[in-house]
């Protein structure tokens, strides 16, 4: 069973977060699913951690281990009371991004 982060345990919502403009050449990726970036991995995880903290601070979002991605991948899961049961937005249960 995956662990989720409760809304009350989250950081305050940061509406000021902005990604910096990317410079340089496009990274090499695999051509099909699972889509993976093969080079240009960040050596400093500060920006990655800031982005994850921001994403998981959004209202009605819980952090959990992905049920469909590679082992260790973190998933964004929508609160069950906000889910759309008649749309095709979710991968497994309430997971919609990883």
What features would you describe in this structure?
With 98 residues, this protein is an alpha+beta fold. It has a domain at 1-8 and 42-98. Helix content is 10%, strand content 13%. It has one helix spanning 46-55, and strands at 61-65, 74-78, 95-97. A three-stranded antiparallel beta sheet has the order 1-2-3, with no helix packed on it. Mean pLDDT is 80; it is low at 1-8.
User: Major sheet: order of its strands?
Assistant: 1-2-3
- The mean pLDDT is 80
Shape: globular
Strand content: 5-15%
First-last Cα distance: 17 Å
Q: Summarize the main sheet.
A: 3 strands, antiparallel
Q: Helix amount, in percent?
A: 10-25%
The number of distinct helices, counting runs of at least 4 residues, comes to: 1
Order of SSEs: HEEE
**Can you tell me the residue ranges where pLDDT is under 50 for at least 5 consecutive residues?**
1-8
What structural category arises from helix and sheet content?
Answer: alpha+beta
Secondary structure: number of strands: 3
Q: Calculate Rg over CA atoms.
A: 15 Å
How is the quaternary structure best described?
single chain
Concise synopsis of the structure shown:
It contains one helix and three strands, in the order αβββ. With 98 residues, the protein is α+β, with helices and mostly antiparallel strands.
Give me some keywords for this one:
alpha+beta; single chain; 10% helix; three-stranded antiparallel β-sheet; 98 residues
């Amino acid at each position: 069973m995956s662990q989720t982060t409760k809304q009350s345990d989250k950081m305050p919502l940061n509406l000021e977060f902005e990604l910096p403009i990317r410079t340089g050449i496009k990274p090499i990726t695999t051509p099909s699913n699972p889509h993976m970036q093969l080079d240009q991995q960040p050596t400093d995880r500060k920006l990655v951690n800031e982005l994850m903290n921001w994403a998981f601070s959004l209202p009605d979002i819980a952090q959990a281990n992905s049920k469909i991605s590679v082992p260790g991948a973190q998933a964004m899961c929508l609160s069950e009371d906000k889910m759309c049961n008649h749309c095709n937005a979710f991968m497994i249960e309430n997971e919609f991004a990883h």
